[in-house]
Structures are given as structure tokens and as C-alpha cells.
């Protein structure tokens, strides 16, 4: 007897499932193996946008000149001073960033050296982070701003989304079972995934920053946008 296999592909279905703005998406394929039992591969995904609660600043200093030793001394002095100021505040986490040097020029001209170093500052207190930028503007320049989701916030959001994606998966499985003339279904396997694979342990958002119009010396205002947390359930069910 020949085995008859049928595959049914349904387009992605998007539905707004929660008033909080969580978006649920589902995908599925079906096939009927030799034992005449319909098996369905089903996928459900939920997302939620949340406000990042951590800001990460990159401060840098770059010097250029012909005396490499003197440049190194000046750069190290600036970096060490900024590090000491940051360590004095328990609400700031501070560490060294990239550090390097290179030469410019050619054999016919005097070689010039470029020295560059970074300090990374992380904090949940945006006001203190902003004040730290202003405090050190004469020693180091603000080079980058990144808004991220803390480990605690990420875990809290994912815990809620896991419950939501389970509900979305079961609701879709029940609807599919009825559509194919079955009253019940059995979950054969299921796997949960999140979008941490793109950025392990954290979620990054583009830095949305605005500057005061009073003068160029005013500190940058730290305004983070939102980041998206995603949880997906990929599973297989059999209709009964």
C-alpha cells in the first residue's frame, strides 16, 4: 500500500492577544503518516516592547603627536582619573574599554603616533550617568550611548511571555484540531526560544538622544526608546 502524504501550509496568522500590546503569531504545517494519524507542526510567537532600564556609555580620548611615551602618559592619566571618579559612585559600574595606538605618516616624514583609550560606564540611574558625562567632558569625550534591558527585567518579561506563548500555542492547537474534524489533540514535542540569540543576555536599542539647545557645553539628555522581547514556541501535535 502506498503511503499518502499531504502537506498543508497555512500563512502566518497574526493576532493581538493581550491589551498590553503583545502580538501573537502562529505558523503550522500538517502531514498524515502511514498510521493515518494527522501530525501538525505548529509555531506560536509573542512579542512585547518594554522600556530599557540600563544605559551604557562609552567615553573615549584620542591623542596624536610624535612622542609616544608622553602621549601614553597623558592618556593613562585621563583614563585613570575617570575610572576613579566612577568607582566612587556605587550606582555606576565602570571598566576599561578598548585601548590602542598606531602610527601615521611615511618614511619621508616624521612619524606621528595616535593613542586612543575608552572607559565604559553602565548604570540604571540615568540622571547620574548624565551627570558623569558632564563631570568628565574635559578629560574624555562621549563616544557612544546604548540602552539595554537588565538581566532582572529580561527574566521578568520572559516569564510573562512564556505563559502567553503557551496560551497562544494551545489556543491555536485547539482551533486547528476542530478545523480538521478532531475534538482533542496531543502535544508530541515543544521547544521554547527567545531572541537572546541575537544579543545574548541582553537586548539593545538604538540610542535615542537629544541635546539641549542652550549651548554646546550642556550635557546630553539620556532618553531610551523601547526594546522588543520575543518568545517562540515550536512544537508538534497529533490530532485525536
**Uncertain stretches of 5 or more adjacent residues:** 1-26, 197-217
Radius of gyration: 27 Å
Largest sheet, in brief, is: 5 strands, antiparallel
The residue fraction in helices comes out at 10-25%
Structural class: alpha+beta
Domain count, please report it: 2
How far is the first residue's CA from the last residue's CA? Answer: 23 Å
State mean pLDDT (0 to 100 scale): 80
Pfam family, one: SIMPL
Protein name: Periplasmic/secreted protein
Keywords: Signal
InterPro entries: 26kDa_periplasmic_antigen, SIMPL/DUF541
What do these coordinates show?
The protein is of the alpha+beta class and 240 residues long. It has 2 domains: 8-49 and 151-200 and 227-239, no CATH class; 54-148, Alpha-Beta Plaits, CATH 3.30.70. It is 25% helix and 44% strand. A 5-stranded antiparallel sheet has the order 1-2-3-12-8. Strands 5-6-4-7-9 form a 5-stranded antiparallel sheet. A two-stranded antiparallel sheet has the order 10-11. Strand 5 (93-104) and strand 6 form a beta hairpin. The radius of gyration is 27 Å and the shape is elongated.
